Amino acid sequence: MAFELPALPYAYDALGPFMSAETLEFHHDKHHQAYVTNGNNLLKDSGLEGLSLEEVVKQSYGKNAGLFNNAGQHYNHIHFWNWMKKDGGGKKLPGKLEAAIASDLGGYDKFKADFVAAGTTQFGSGWAWLSVKDGKLEISKTPNGENPLVHGASPILGVDVWEHSYYIDYRNARPKYLEAFVDSLINWDYVAEMYEAATK
User: Fold this and answer.
1) What is the pLDDT of residue 52?
2) Contacts of 82 (CB under 8 A, 6+ apart)
3) Which residues form the Manganese/iron superoxide dismutase C-terminal domain (predicted)?
C-alpha cells in the first residue's frame, strides 16, 4: 500500500494567526511530502508492502529505522492536520471525552498543563501525545517520528514539536506554540472520534 500525501482539510491560511500559511506550506508540502516519498522508497522490498500504515509502523519499529521514521511521521502527520481546525481548541469538548479527561487526567486544566509540559520537555524533535492505553487516557512524549502505537497505546491527539512546526511563527518559544495549539487549534471532534474508535 503506497503512502500518499493527503490534501490539507482546510486552506493554508485557515489556522492563522496561530499557525501561518507559510508554516503549513513548508510543513505539509515539503516535510510531509518528503516522508511520503522516502517512505515509499524504503517500503519497496521491505517485506511490509501491502500492510496498513499502522502495521508498517509497528512492524518496522526496532527493525528498519529508516522505514519506521518515515512511516511513523507519515502516520503522525495524516492525523496532525486533522487534529487542528479554524476556531478550535479551548474547553468545548464532546461530553464523553470531557468525562474521560476529568476521571483519568484530573480535568481539562490539568490535562492542558501536563500536555504542554510534555511537549516543552521533549528534548529535541518529537511529539507530545494524548492516548488510550488499557482503556484509560494518558499523556506521553516520544522522540522523532515515534508514536504511542509502538508502546501498546492508541494515539487520539498529538502535537508536533519538531522546529519546522513552529519556528516560522514562534521562533524558539515552543511553550507559546503549545499553548496556542491547545487553546485555539485542537479539533476536539476528531479527537473524540479517535477516542470512540480506541475504546470500542
Assistant:
1) 97
2) 9, 187, 190
3) 95-193
Output the pTM of the full model: 0.98
Q: Which residue bears the cell 499557525?
A: 19
Q: By the 8 A CB rule, do 132 and 191 touch?
A: no
User: Which pLDDT band holds residue 130 (cuts at 50, 70, 90)?
Assistant: very high
Q: What is the mean pLDDT of residues 22-44?
A: 98
**56, 49 Cβ separation under 8 angstroms:** no
**Residues forming the annotated binding site?**
27, 77, 160, 164
Fold of 21-83: Helix Hairpins (1.10.287)
pLDDT tens-place string over residues 70-106: 999 999 999 999 999 999 999 999 999 999 999 999 9
For residue 145, is it left (φ>0), alpha (ψ between -120 and 50) or beta?
Answer: alpha
Query: CA-based Rg of the chain, rounded to a whole angstrom?
Result: 16
CATH code of the domain occupying 95-198: 3.55.40.20
Binding residues for Mn(2+): 27, 77, 160, 164
Any idea what DSSP says for residue 151? G
Distant-in-sequence, close-in-space partners of 1: CB < 8 Å, separation ≥ 6: 49, 50, 51, 52, 53
Q: How far is residue 85's CA from residue 139's CA, in Å, rounded to a whole number?
A: 21
